[in-house]
Specification:
The structure holds two protein chains of two kinds.
Chain A: E1 2-5, H1 13-21, E2 26-29, H2 32-37, E3 40-43, H3 49-58, H4 61-70, E4 75-78, H5 80-83, E5 88-89, E6 95-96, E7 104-107, E8 120-125, E9 127-128, E10 143-148, E11 150-153, E12 159-164, E13 168-175, E14 178-181, H6 189-201
Parallel strand pairs in A: 1-2, 1-3, 3-4, 4-14, 5-7
Antiparallel strand pairs in A: 5-6, 7-11, 8-10, 9-12, 12-13, 13-14
Chain B: E1 5-13, E2 16-17, H1 32-42, E3 47-51, H2 56-72, E4 77-80, H3 86-94, E5 99-102, H4 104-108, H5 111-120, E6 125-134, E7 137-142, E8 147-152, H6 153-163, E9 167-172, H7 184-193, E10 198-201, H8 207-216, E11 222-225, H9 227-230, H10 236-245
Parallel strand pairs in B: 1-3, 1-11, 3-4, 4-5, 5-6, 6-9, 9-10, 10-11
Antiparallel strand pairs in B: 1-2, 6-7, 7-8
Helix pairs in contact in B: 1-2, 8-10
The chains are: A alpha/beta, B alpha/beta.
Chain lengths: 206, 252
């Protein structure tokens, strides 16, 4: 069973539909006991970093997620959910993240040429780095769907894929059993389903 | 590099796609679910669903169909038609829509844009404007292009973006249905005024019209059409190959 962590941020319909499509059992939940009982976790999210982190903290989910990840449970963050995995964010001030992957979240504004539109919305291609298990069936140049105004930098060896938008932007990162996608696999057609399938079929250490 | 998007638009009434659809190999040509899946499989980058149902019974039916479509396709889905309140946003987003397109509802109440953008984020709010030339200026029309609002279109769109709209659909009433190509002059005026994605609509009659659109106006992000796709006059896969051959970056 996969827990789609519900902390009141974002629309979880497409994510749960896409998991159903690939035959994975998933439950949308914010209940710590249910989350502890699941063998994989997905942290979704859209919106602002600070608000999202506050909501996680209010329910004690920040600590729980860190404990579960430390225990070896596969964890996938998507979009804002990915950004929360990093050490800190500079979205409207400075906020501490979950610190599960090295790097910090910074605005696109000022880091890409002025003629490029923000948010970065649309289909863009991936350039792979290293051998991230959730991207094992993905090729360089495969397209995925992005919607974001902030991105992670300074990921070092955790960098798993980038995309080109005026500059090279972190599209995916991983650290052990913790994975993050800046793009939306649940909106990225067949390519996205391939990525979700890889996450769902990874062996879980008990 | 980011790609140009190709977006088919489905007009849905009483749970069926209304504008004529003419496909071989499709069991039920007016089923939004089958047609949505067909386009998604053909490489459409996004789908627009337009609710043209008048009665509240129809609205419930539309919501049911929308949920079914959203469960079937895994590309972005934009929903428009009859969106007048934040509750309307809520209703369609809960069914799996990713973006909501507002038109007459925003003309009646521009604060709808800021309220929705605040609650769901700008990326979720699309302003769709029906525009026609009147006495040498671009005018915004309401109620499906029937009523002249007497508002100048470019300043209206700038205002909407200022309020938080994250994307603009430009429907040229002047070129719509003529099939002589997109309204490049009108689109350029909009692109010069805002820095959010602009989607061209109205006038596509053949695949070459999309090539002209993206070559002449590289600032335009997407091309939207209905009947040329429904009738198979333009096939999405072939269109994307043609765009690629012309040096335009697309998802293949």
């Amino acid at each position: 069973m996969i827990a789609i962590i519900d902390y009141g941020v974002g629309n979880l319909f497409s994510l749960s539909s896409s998991l159903r499509m690939i035959g994975a059992d998933a439950v949308i939940t914010g209940d710590p006991e249910v989350i502890k009982g699941c063998e994989r976790l997905i942290l979704p999210g859209v919106g602002a970093f600070g608000d999202a982190m506050e909501k996680l903290k209010a329910d004690g989910l920040d600590r729980l997620i860190k404990e579960e990840a430390a225990g070896g449970k596969p964890l996938l963050g998507i979009c804002l959910g990915m950004q929360l995995l990093f050490e800190k964010s500079y979205e409207f001030g400075e906020h501490e993240g979950l610190g599960l992957i090295k790097g910090s979240v910074v605005p696109l504004e000022g880091r890409i040429p002025k003629d490029l539109k923000i948010p970065h919305i649309g289909w863009n291609s991936l350039k792979l780095y290293g051998s991230c298990p959730i991207l094992k069936n993905i090729k360089n140049g495969d397209f995925v769907y992005f919607v974001h105004s902030f991105f992670a930098e300074g990921c070092g060896d955790s960098l798993a894929a980038t995309t080109e938008y005026g500059t090279e932007i972190c599209a995916a990162a991983s650290n052990g059993n913790v994975y993050g996608c800046q793009f939306h696999p649940e909106k990225s057609g067949e390519t996205g389903l391939v990525i979700l399938r890889a996450f769902c079929s990874m062996e879980v250490s008990k | 590099m980011i790609t140009k998007r190709i977006i088919p638009c489905l007009d849905v009434k009483d749970g069926r796609v209304v504008k004529g659809v003419n496909f071989k190999g499709l069991g039920d040509v007016s089923s939004p679910v089958e047609l949505g899946k067909y386009y998604s499989d053909c490489g459409a980058d996004e789908l627009v669903f337009y609710d043209i149902t008048a009665s509240s019974d129809g609205r419930k039916l539309f919501t049911d169909i929308l949920c079914e479509v959203a469960r079937t396709i895994f590309i972005p889905l934009t929903v428009g038609g009859g969106i007048n309140t934040v509750e309307d946003f809520d209703r369609v987003l809960k069914c799996g829509a990713d973006k909501v397109s507002v038109n007459s509802g925003a003309i009646k109440n521009p604060a709808l844009i800021s309220a929705a953008a605040e609650k769901y984020g700008s990326q979720c709010v699309v302003i769709s404007a029906d525009i026609k030339r009147v006495g040498g200026e671009f005018r915004v029309f309401a109620r499906g292009g029937r009523d002249d609002t007497e508002m100048e279109a470019i300043s209206w769109i700038k205002r909407c973006v200022g309020l938080g709209a994250g994307e603009v659909v430009v429907n040229s009433i002047d070129t719509d249905g003529v099939k002589g190509g997109f309204d490049l002059e009108m689109l350029k005026a909009v692109c010069d005024a805002v820095n959010v994605p602009v989607i061209a609509s109205g006038g596509a009659g053949k695949a070459e019209d999309f090539v002209t659109l993206f070559n002449e106006l590289p600032q335009v992000d997407a091309g939207l059409a209905a009947s040329v796709f429904h009738f198979g006059e333009v096939k999405i896969k072939e269109l994307k190959m043609l765009l690629k051959d012309n040096g335009i970056n697309v998802r293949l």
